[in-house]
Amino acid sequence: MNLSIIIPVFNEENFLERLFYDLKKHFNLNDAEIIFVNDGSTDNSKKLIEHFIKDNSKNFKSNLINFDFNKGKGKAVREGINFSKGKYVLLQDADLELDLEDSKELYDIIRNNSDIKCIFGSRYLSGKLKKNNYFFNQLVAKLNSIIFNLFFSQSLSDIHCGLKILHRDVIKKLKLDINDFGLEIDIASQIVRNNFFIYEYGVSYYFRTKQQGKKITWIDGVKSYYYLFKVRFIDNDIATNISIIFSSFYMSYVGSFFGKGMGTTLFIILFAIIGLFIGLKNKILSSSIILLFIYLGSLIGKGQGQVVAVIFFFIISFYFIYFVKKQINKINNFILNYLF
To answer: Under DSSP, is residue 112 helix (H, G, I), strand (E, B) or coil?
Structure first.
């Protein structure tokens, strides 16, 4: 099996007949399988899928995973991935906001280039047709992509696009645990953590309204910020999480040297956020060195002079850590090259 297409379905009876037509038009392949995951639909979606599976006019295999109640897109995709057998796994929504013709283009690109392990569709890169009347949704999607890029040092334009194709090597590394629309953030973060490069490809986009069955709401938009925080600052190894907590606390202390009244509170929050990022890049010993330098700076001068000293020693601490790490690497290389 070369290709597995996973399609979560929740109350999509109005779009399924067109979806079936497009699947046979673009993916009528002997080495492909379509995995529908009925996520507790209360309309005729399940019956329509069952009827399609019995259709003998198609070349690809098709299967149905059925949930008795709605468990969320993330859960549906996870179950589909666990069931899949293909060398490549294509994630496709059932609502036809994203064109199956673009999906086929993604598949053709990745199977003809062994260096590419994953491609994300992007609704903001293409010169293709786009229909979108919801400014707020687009704003949130772009803002979340910017935040993700800052958190993970990436340059992606659209992490929320539901169209993705992944090589089995990538699939094996994923340990997804988010059940709802936060799935897209979960997938992107784990791909980056496992050092795979994410390619993007411009795709068409036909936004549908709530009256047409749009599922995502403003609540999902709010939750996305929690998921961004979770995948960056919580889903780490124990040593990194300890360092993050430790760094955020002592940087809060640094913030207390700035401002007055409400201003001090804002600086404490700002420096606590800076501490989160310091904890990501530095383990507990390095963080302790930074704290030591900050403490030494706080012993010098008073008022503004003390603030300048704290900032100066804070900056110097990074140079000191860099110098120490460089020397340790030289010693390690010397031992490996000359003693073993």
So the answer is: coil
Interior/surface letters 38-57, b for 16+ CB within 10 angstroms, e for the rest: bbbbeeebbebbeebeeeee
Confidence of residue 213 (pLDDT cuts 50, 70, 90): low
What is the predicted pLDDT for the residue at 302? 78
- Between CA 153 and CA 168 the distance in angstroms is 24
Q: Tell me the mean pLDDT in the region 175-200.
A: 94
Q: What is the pTM of this model?
A: 0.84
- For 3-233, give the CATH class: alpha beta
Domain ranges, ordered by start, for the chain: 3-233, 238-338
Within 8 A by CB and 6+ apart from 183, the residues are 73, 74, 77, 176
CA dihedral 41, 218, 188, 212 (to 10 degrees): 40
Residues pairing with 200 in the sheet: 120
Q: Which residue has the tokens 């760094």?
A: 247
* Cα–Cα distance for residue pair 187/302, rounded to 1 Å: 49
Average pLDDT, the chain: 90
Instruction: Look up residue 334 and give its two tokens.
Output: 């010397």
Confidence of residue 133 (pLDDT cuts 50, 70, 90): low
Look at residue 3 in the predicted model and tell me its pLDDT: 97
Distances (CA, A) of 258 to 270, 271, 297, 317: 11, 10, 14, 19
